[in-house]
Amino acid sequence: IAAVLTPDRWLRFNAAAQDGASRQSDRTLMSYVRGAWSKEADETADRATTTYLRSKATWSGILLRYQNLRDEPVVLLRVFHAPGTRTEPTALKDARIFARGHLGLLEVKPHVEGGIDARRMSKAFPDALITTGGRHGRFHERVVRQFGFRGDATLQLLHKTQSAKNLGTLDALFRGFMLDQPGTFARTATAVEQFTELDAAHKHVVDLRKQADALRKVDEAITAFDLAGAEVAAISDLHDAVEPFTAGLKLRLAKEAAGPARARLARAESELSDAAREQRLASEALDSAKARVRDEGGARVELLQERIESAQRAEDIAGQYRAQLTAELARIGAPMPEDPEQFAELLAAAVTEAARDIPAVSYEVRDAASQARKAVDEVTKQIQALRDHRSNLDERLLSARRFLADAVGVPASTFPFAGELISVAEQHSGWRGAAERVMAPFAPTLLVRDEHLVAARRAADSRTLGVRLVIEAVPHSVDEPRRPKDSRSLVHRLVVSDGPFASYVRKRIANEFDYACVSHPDELDGVDRGVTIGGLVKRNSRRYEKDDRHDVGDATRWMLGGDTQARLEALLSRRREAELAKDKTAARESDADSLHQDAVSRRDVFNRVSMFTWNQVDLASATAVTAARRDELRVLTSESGTLREAQEAAERATQRLNETNEGYERAVGDHAVAGKNVESIAAHIAGLEATPHAPVDERITDALEGRFRAERRSVILETVDEVARKVQSALSKEKDAAAGRAADAEASFAGRAAEFRLEWSAASAELTADIRDRYGYRELREGILARGLPEKETEFRKLLRERSQDVVAHLLSDLRDAPGLIRERILPVNASLGRSPFEGADRFLEIDVKTTRTPEVDEFLTDLRRIVEGNWADESAAGAEQR
Asked: Pick from 194, 453, 646, 699: CA 20 to 30 A from residue 691's CA?
């Protein structure tokens, strides 16, 4: 019956609809027409084949006849033809016939057994409705009208009812056979389908936002690198321009100084001429005074005068020697001897001290200072390497990796060290030192993929690397690592970074570094391999190792993890300690040098003191001689008033001559200085003009002028070189600092770009983590912010507004109206039930409609109301996503 009445899209044989889909491919119209009756093993193929009763061309048919004894019978006929030996369902041809009267099945045999011939059947049965080719819509419409059905759904319900195996409950009867599927099912399916599209759009928006946020961090590193690079370039321009700017400034200052220098020379020449004239006049006046003394009969006076002058010269020389000796003794804190006995004692001590050997500064002091300087240099080098490369590994290993990567032609990040991929979980940070000791053999291992191994191996063998380098070849596929034996295993306390090497590293750790982390050394007896938090490592049943060459908590020796902050802070602390130690040892060395130099200076002083004699420094005796000569002259001249006057005039003339001689010497010195200054400036100008210098940009000139003035407000020719050195030194420091910031920014860019490429490999397929690709990342971010993200957000909002809002609103409305619609549809059912007694003449069935909602249903309806309530047009982006 179902094969004739039911449309093929609903047709199921032997209650297949209830039993599932497992036999649908077996029970088909073709299998019935062919007469499938068993399955047998194929002798040539490893599978089961179906055995048919009718394996050649055949036909079959079903005829349903309905009559009411008043009208002509209604004949519903369906015939099939299976051509050749084909068994696939699509090869089966059929025809449906709707006719009135006494049409028999065998009457259509001539038109079917050789293949269905619709034309011949139409001629043979002109009053019948014949449909073929799988298009039987008109046939089903005629059946529905003829039997008074409500529609095609009635045919489906009839088929399901007839094919039902059992009906255990009324609910099964109503839901499975009497009630149409609610429209909310279709709306729900539509909502789910549209939500899938909406969810995909939203995920795309979220993904683009994540990309934009990740690229923002990359862009920050790019900006920092560009700013630092621009600063380096600007400072380099200033630094390179210091020399030509200084030359130009010196030329300008020299030309400005040339005029005043010539003026000073002219004044010096005039003053020298005046001094020479005064000297000549004073000399002539002295000659006249001396002649007067002689005329007054002063031959004896002249002799005494010569003796006085000789005594005065001797007194001056003694004063000079005594001043020299006093200065020498003041250097060693010794008093000046006042008599020959004291001088003899001093001379004996000086001879002894001058012969004494002075030991050099001790080797221990020199070595301590040298080691302290080396320690500061070493830790500074480590800090710089850490900032440059963002890796906890030794800079020599990093240099070797860069060489191999350059030789192979890949980025250095292609060859990670194992230690860079392994870190200690934050909650187990107290075990970091112990983990470092256990993983020390594996951490500095360079991991190389099989496809790069040959080239890397050749590069490593081509030169001396200057460091012990261990390379491990990493295969593409790695077996799953075994589970650790102990819950305290170090494996549980380590984290391996995701990436192409993660599986290999996890396996290596699980296989070779499954060490139990025990809290007490005695617990090591119960494990094969273990480690204490103090760094005692049990390698096997009989071997224990504790490497205390460095403290277990010494973060400067750590190699694990990509985060360098802890090691950087430890190195900075170590450098502060090293600088304090350097300052202390430098102070000790300086004190030792000072003591040694003081001893040498003291010996030199005593050596010079030993060269003096008492006669050289006996100023009192020389002064007494001079006074005696003057007394003789005073006695001689007191006897003659005119002679005394002539002598006094001669003394005044002598004093004047001395004064004019001093003035002349000063004038000669000033003239020589002024002349030398003019010559120096002229030579300076000639030399600067003869040496060509590149012109300096006006902007750079202004900047350097400001720096020179800031260093010294008044810059003159004599100080310009000193100021230039200070400015150049300051620029060098600024350039180094900016270069350090650029290196930090480059390292930050490389790390963030690598993270982005790992997360969004398709978006960054044409980009690398090299700083030269930085503007590609910026363009990618700008494209996302300018086009990609707005377009996807607009698409998401459009889908949300145009589709999801309507679907969800209609679904909510249908669910709200469903109880009323059910009550309305149950009314005629109850009326029908009221016409048929149930188990007795006075008992009838009635369906009572009740609404029961579980908490899940209430929550679902609440969510739907939250979605549709409010004004969608005024919705913010965050609110729309929340909906």
From this structure: 699
